[in-house]
Amino acid sequence: MNDNKSMSNNLEIMRKFSEVYAQRTGTFFCIDLSVTSVVIEGLAKHKDEYGFPLCPCRHYEDKVKEVTSAYWNCPCVPMRERKECHCMLFLTPNNEFASQKQTISLSNLMKEIE
């Protein structure tokens, strides 16, 4: 991983992306904001390490190969095609774990991942 400033920038980039994407797709963050925070943190780490926000909730034999294929880069193909988010970052309103929130402050996110 690069320095903390880079991670901090990617964390903010992924936080903003997540908010915009949730609003654009009519999806919501999980009731448990620690889930949302950990997923955003994982996306930011992958963006820092590989240049793309590879889904952090899956196991990969070769992350570089997966990034290149782009299938699991967020938003992944299942999310784009069917609104299915394995990470529970983007939940449809009828999902029992969906909150009514489409935003998360950087300070709340940081509190959850510390």
Automatic annotation (TrEMBL):
Binding site for [4Fe-4S] cluster: 55, 74, 76, 85
Domain of life: Eukaryota
Gene3D superfamilies per the UniProt record, alphabetical: Ferredoxin thioredoxin reductase catalytic beta subunit
Site (Increases the nucleophilicity of the active site Cys): 86
Named cofactor requirement(s): [4Fe-4S] cluster
Entry EC number(s): 1.8.7.2
Catalytic activity: [thioredoxin]-disulfide + 2 reduced [2Fe-2S]-[ferredoxin] + 2 H(+) = [thioredoxin]-dithiol + 2 oxidized [2Fe-2S]-[ferredoxin]
Pfam families on file: FeThRed_B (PF02943)
Family: Belongs to the ferredoxin thioredoxin reductase beta subunit family.
Function: Catalytic subunit of the ferredoxin-thioredoxin reductase (FTR), which catalyzes the two-electron reduction of thioredoxins by the electrons provided by reduced ferredoxin.
Assembly information from the UniProt record: Heterodimer of subunit A (variable subunit) and subunit B (catalytic subunit). Heterodimeric FTR forms a complex with ferredoxin and thioredoxin.
Protein name, UniProt field: Ferredoxin-thioredoxin reductase, catalytic chain
Organism of origin: Campylaephora sungminbooi
Taxonomic lineage from the root: Eukaryota, Rhodophyta, Florideophyceae, Rhodymeniophycidae, Ceramiales
Gene expressing this chain: ftrC
